[in-house]
């Protein structure tokens, strides 16, 4: 459990004269739930795109699942899962057809896909929805299915980009139960969220401000360090500090 599945050292991304990600360094261990927090424009999405092999760093280095994010991007993509707020499901396919499609994309055998489909639908309580078109599912159910699809091939890391936007608090808690189950199986979960209460569910969190990581630790230690009652208060303190620096 001490294996570093994500590693970065002074990872940087520039667009012309603008530095979107400024020399960030951190490690994430196997099975860890790692929260990646920051306001819009802080650099979270740019950093995640580099870690997913979708954008080449300007400088610095990093690896995901043991593969270099600059020179082994295709291998990185094979060993990760990804889910965005917009989901990645095909609305005009049935539930089981989505699972078969994504299993095939990741090179799984037909028998393995069939077995995993039965297991996953049972675990979600979706057996009765096997032949339902995805467009007919409630938003919360689509969210759970999209997450299950993202880890269907048992990736070493799953990246979740604002995965719980637009759903009610009860559904959010149920979604986090799925995250905990994945973590218990050894899947590393890298999640961005703007819900500060969700930071409490993570083993560790980093907080980005203007492209740099300004704080990184467990939620409890960050609250203690900043003498804050909540993670939202920690975030507000860092934001105010950034404003003072820019003045």
TrEMBL record:
<keyword id="KW-0067">ATP-binding</keyword>
<dbReference type="InterPro" id="IPR027417">
    <property type="entry name" value="P-loop_NTPase"/>
</dbReference>
<feature type="domain" description="ABC transporter">
    <location>
        <begin position="6"/>
        <end position="235"/>
    </location>
</feature>
<dbReference type="Pfam" id="PF00005">
    <property type="entry name" value="ABC_tran"/>
</dbReference>
<dbReference type="InterPro" id="IPR003593">
    <property type="entry name" value="AAA+_ATPase"/>
</dbReference>
<dbReference type="GO" id="GO:0016887">
    <property type="term" value="F:ATP hydrolysis activity"/>
</dbReference>
<keyword id="KW-0547">Nucleotide-binding</keyword>
<dbReference type="InterPro" id="IPR003439">
    <property type="entry name" value="ABC_transporter-like_ATP-bd"/>
</dbReference>
<protein>
    <submittedName>
        <fullName>Sulfate-transporting ATPase</fullName>
        <ecNumber>3.6.3.25</ecNumber>
    </submittedName>
</protein>
<dbReference type="GO" id="GO:0005524">
    <property type="term" value="F:ATP binding"/>
</dbReference>
<keyword id="KW-0378">Hydrolase</keyword>
